[in-house]
Specification:
Helix content: 25-40%
CATH topology: Pnp Oxidase, Chain A
Shape: globular
Radius of gyration: 17 Å
Strand content: 35-45%
CATH class: Mainly Beta
Low-confidence stretches: none
Number of helices: 5
CATH superfamily: Electron Transport, Fmn-binding Protein, Chain A
Oligomer: single chain
Strand order of the largest sheet: 2-1-5-6-7-4-3
């Protein structure tokens, strides 16, 4: 059994923005937003290098990486720590990440390569609301944060 559970996969697939942390040459953190995070298999995730020169530079020197994927409305998600491998255009991993991204967003986005992450540790990230508000549920938090962000959910149920 792999590290990536069905719920982790669901969060990754529904998250529109994830954050990747790498280490700069001077030891300071580099945090970079990513909108192409995907599950590759039960132990690997990856993302496209669209505009990530600092992230790629850092990974060439030190392949340690952490990714946070959070459902902002349910106020929970996961952090994935692992080791990154850079995959060039033409590789199988490149196609598995680039093609779905391009299908959804168009080919105007240049993808220079992809980052394949061997996940070594996966941990939950939970809002303190789950600890400090007695009886709180995901549904209650979702509704509250839809309101805080001024979001009206799209009804995706099929028409009769």
């Amino acid at each position: 059994m792999g590290l990536i559970t069905d719920d982790m996969r669901r969060v990754i697939e529904s998250t529109r923005l994830a954050f990747v942390a790498t280490v700069n040459p001077d030891g300071t953190p580099n945090l970079s937003p990513k909108s192409s995070l995907a599950v590759l298999d039960e132990n690997r995730i990856g993302f496209a290098d669209i505009a990530s020169p600092n992230t790629v530079r850092n990974l060439k020197a030190n392949p340690a990486i952490e990714v946070n994927a959070i459902d902002i409305f349910m106020r929970r998600g996961y952090r994935f720590r692992g080791t990154a491998t850079l995959e060039p255009p033409g590789s199988e991993t490149f196609a598995r990440i680039a093609e779905p991204f391009w299908a959804q967003n168009g080919r105007d986005f240049p993808i220079h390569g992809v980052v394949d992450i061997a996940v070594e540790k996966a941990l939950p990230v939970l809002s303190p609301a789950y600890t400090f508000i007695e009886g709180v549920t995901e549904d209650a938090l979702r509704e509250a944060y839809y309101g805080k962000y001024g979001v009206t959910p799209i009804d995706s149920s099929p028409s009769p």
